[in-house]
Write a structure and sequence with these properties.
By secondary structure, this protein is α/β, with parallel strands linked by helices. The protein has one domain: 2,3-Dihydroxybiphenyl 1,2-Dioxygenase, domain 1, CATH 3.10.180. About 25% of the residues are buried.
Length: about 140
């Protein structure tokens, strides 16, 4: 799909499987974090919206006011972290490079890169709004 030119209606009709939509106070900031830390590609970015693609998986970012008519809007906290309990895995992402980028952006690193028994090298970074971004890459002998 050509994310820069597809109409909202056609994109909506094409979506399948499980979708991820993150509500955020600052779409450009969260998009910049995702691009720098995970290598995600950002499309159609505006102050209100962005499409994020990472290795074929697509998610969307929406600025809070765009959801004013949605029932979830009333559940958003006015301040403080909002992503507690949400952990987003970015498979095939170099955790060492991602953590270096996260530190340069002033983000909190919850877990430094380390090899895990299940065959992945992982690290977890916290976005400004509390979303746990786990960077994971397969360990090869």
């Amino acid at each position: 799909m050509e994310y820069e030119t597809v109409s909202p209606e056609d994109m909506g009709r094409a979506l399948r499987g499980i979708g991820v939509n993150l509500l955020t106070r600052d779409v450009p900031r969260l998009a910049a974090i995702l691009a720098a830390v995970t290598g995600a590609r950002i499309f159609r970015q505006s102050v209100d919206f962005a499409v994020v693609e990472h290795q074929g998986a697509v998610m969307q970012l929406h600025r809070d006011p765009t959801f004013a008519g949605n029932p979830i809007y009333g559940l958003l906290p006015e301040s403080g972290p909002r992503g507690a309990g949400a952990q987003l895995y970015f498979f095939g992402t170099d955790p060492d490079a991602g953590v270096q980028q996260a530190r340069e952006l002033g983000l909190m690193v919850l877990e430094d890169p380390r090899d895990k028994p299940h065959g992945l090298r992982e690290a977890t970074v916290l976005s400004d709004e509390g979303y746990a971004l786990t960077l994971a890459k397969a360990i090869y002998d």
